[in-house]
Amino acid sequence: MTGAFRTASGGRIDRSKPVAFTFDGQHLSGFSGDTLASALIANGIHLTGRSFKYHRPRGILSAGTDEPNALVGVGRDEAHYAPNLRATQVELYEGLKAESQNRWPSLKFDAGAVNDLASPLLPSGFYYKTFMWPAKAWTKFYEPKIRAMAGLGRAPEAPDADRYSQHYAHCDVLVVGSGPAGLAAALAAAASGVKVMLVDEQPEMGGSLLASRDASIDGKPAQQWLADALAELSAADNVTLMTRTTAFGYFPHNMIALAERVTEHVAVPDPELPRERLWQVRAKEVVLATGALERPLVFPDNDRPGVMLADSGRTYANRYGAKPGKRAVIFTACDAGYRSALDLAAAGVEIAAIADLRRNPAGELPAKALAAGIEVRPSTAVTGTSGRLRVSGAALTKMGEYDFGATQQIACDVLLMSGGFTPSVHLFSQSRGKLAFDPVLNCYVPGTSVERERSAGASRGLFELGAALEDGYAKGADAAKAAKGAKAPARAFAAQAPRLGTDGHIGATPHNRNPAFAKAFVDWQNDVTAKDIKLATREGFRSIEHIKRYTTTGMATDQGKTSNMNALGIVSDALKTPVPQIGLTTFRPPFTPTTFGIFAGAARGELFDPARQTAIHGWAAEQGAIFEDVGNWKRALYFPRGNEGMHEAVARECRAVRSAVGIFDASTLGKIEIVGPDAAEFMNRMYTNAWAKLEPGRLRYGVMLREDGFVMDDGVVGRMAPDRFHVTTTTGGAPRVLAHMEDYLQTEWPDLDVWLTSTTEQWSVIAVQGPLARQVLRPLLEGIDLSKEAMPHMSVREGTILGIPTRVFSVSFTGELGFEVNVPSEHGRKVWEAIYASGQKFGITPYGTETMHVLRAEKGYIIVGQETDGTATPDDVNLGWAVGKAKKDFVGKRALARASMSAPDRKQLVGLFTVEPQTVLEEGAQVVADPKAPVPVPMLGHVTSSYHSSVLGRSIALAVIKGGRGRIGQKLFVPMPDRVIEVEVTEPVFYDPKGERFDV
Amino acid sequence: MLIINCPYCGERPEIEFRYGGEAHIARPADPSALSDAEWTDFLYNRTNPKGKHAERWRHIHGCGRYFNAVRDTVSDFFVTTYKTGEARPDIEESAR
Ligand SMILES: [Zn+2]
Question: Which InterPro entries match (chain B) (predicted)?
Answer without folding.
Answer: SoxD, SoxD_sf
